[in-house]
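Hi V.,

You were right to ask for the full record rather than a summary. Here it is.
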Amino acid sequence: ERLRAEYRKTAEEETERISALLPEEILSMIPDRRFIGISLLPPKAKKKLDRLAKECDCKVKDTLADYDKYYFGIEESLPPCFTNDGFALHDAAVTGYLCEDDSVTLTLDTEYSYSNISRITLSGVTEVNGDPMDAFWLYDELHTDGDNITLGVLMSRDDRVFTFECTFKKAETEVTLRKI
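Predicted structure:
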């Protein structure tokens, strides 16, 4: 009985989570939303959902291609530490965050990322939004505006996704080689 109650609770939570993401047009085609939590959808709703997923995938691919084109256009104006092969910080954890005067220092645990960067120091900082402490680095983008560079990072902490942004003029990284 306890296992059945746990299963029911999990299915209800999954149903609520997925329902919150679906457009009303698709939800209106599902007679009993409990079917969502166990992946049983009426054929018409499944077809519309598959089409929506393909459209979203195309939009994501187009957006990433547009950013890649932009990035390669600004790459020469970026500090070398951002153009190295080692600046792949997905899944790095921010274990230290110091914001003082006109600098920001991020200390990173990169055990589960593809990088050996252990610290990033941004100087000439003019604006900071968000608190990256104890968050995981998901995705980053760089944008330039004259002498200023803005680092935007999509991060997650406590099952919440948010952005950290910092506008700066110079950047340095510190690398720590890992033991194999």
